[in-house]
Amino acid sequence: MAEVSLKNIVKLYGDVRAVDGVSLDIHDKEFVTLVGPSGCGKTTTLHMIAGLIELDGGDILIGKNNVSELDPKDRDIAMVFQNYALYPHKSVRDNLMFPLRMRKIDKTTAAQRVSRASKILSIEQLLDRKPKQLSGGQQQRVALGRAIVRDPAVFLMDEPLSNLDAKLRVQMRTEIKHLQQELQATMIYVTHDQIEAMTMSDRIAVMDKGKVQQFGSPDELFNRPNNVFVAGFIGNPPMNLIPAQLVSEGGSKKLRMGQITYSPQTGHVHDLMNKAAGEKVIVGLRNTAIQMVAPGTAGSILTEVYTVEPTGDVTYVQTNIGDKMCTISSPDVAYRGRLGDPLTLRIDETRLYLFDDLSGKAIW
Ligand SMILES: Nc1ncnc2c1ncn2[C@@H]1O[C@H](COP(=O)(O)OP(=O)(O)OP(=O)(O)O)[C@@H](O)[C@H]1O
Ligand SMILES: [Mg+2]
Fold first, then answer.
1. d(CA 155, CA 186)
2. Contact, 32 vs 177, CB < 8 A?
3. pTM of the entire structure?
4. 196-250 pLDDT per residue, tens
5. Ligand 1 centre from 92 Cα, in Å?
6. What CA–CA distance (Å, rounded) separates 55 from 189?
7. Which ligand is nearest the CA of 47, by number?
8. What domains are there in the chain, each with its CATH number?
9. Based on the number of CB atoms within 10 Å of its own CB, is 78 exposed (0-12), middle (13-18) or buried (19 or more)?
10. 162 CA to centre of ligand 1 in angstroms
């Protein structure tokens, strides 16, 4: 197995900077996910690592080797695609054997590898079937098997679960994570689903517009987002991001959010406000950092119910704070307020984030 280093890699399609100077150091045996919205450059980055697309700049190292100029077959990687790409007329066994035959691995070794991979993936009883005689989840397992038999230094996976239904996706996500740990493999995994990224990865690279916005552990991204983009992308529901203006009233700084002028009570928020470069900021509050409290609570703000969304475990309440639709979680799951019902809200200031409006950068 091996570490993978991307050094300032670039891919241009005409005017589009599909991958715009991406640098990542991925450790041996690490599970790293590239996540971001459609078109942000995830697949292009993965294909550059695989050698399917030439670089317009930068270098890629696998282990100590600069592989930038190497053919895909010489890079010691195995890729699992979204559409599985199984041979329809070959049996599962022959699908698994094929990559080994191509590499002229001797028959005994090949049979051993196929047997081991089928055991790991529990597909031993399916070896004589054709792909169309398999369920989506089983086909996915065969596609994984075809990567495993290669015993590569690095696994690359591009949205391998996106063709599965929601329940199977959750199940396969657990299996892939388990598999990666069992094989002690270096894994680079692509998804646009932040929950998938959060639950599977050691570290996540959040991408937008061809650039890595932040690279860190799930906890780091959730608790210390570098910028508004990461704050709004990681976490479900997304962080509430409320445009605000810093104003001075009666000698102290306040946050004006639409009609609401909020007087922060803690040193933490005053520190952040003092560090802000401009007057325009964005206040970031996760749904659990805004609490419904009894009317008349000191320091509270008043709003109204827009909608109530029960989900079973948690009941979400939507409400406008300073012209911005915000989602909060009700402390009482049985809460069923109606449109226009008054809400008294308290902000947990220890969990308030402030971002610069112009650059989007977090103020620390
Ligand atoms: N062959 C190509 N020719 C021209 N532009 C391309 C080509 N391939 C990708 N692009 C552009 O490069 C950008 C990045 O595409 P990429 O496929 O890497 O995105 P992605 O993050 O994988 O998106 P998705 O989540 O939709 O799969 C997009 O703007 C896309 O339109
Ligand atoms: Mg893609």
1. 6
2. no
3. 0.94
4. 999 999 999 999 999 999 999 999 999 999 999 999 999 999 999 999 999 999 8
5. 32
6. 20
7. 1
8. 4-221 (3.40.50.300), 240-356 (2.40.50.140)
9. buried
10. 17
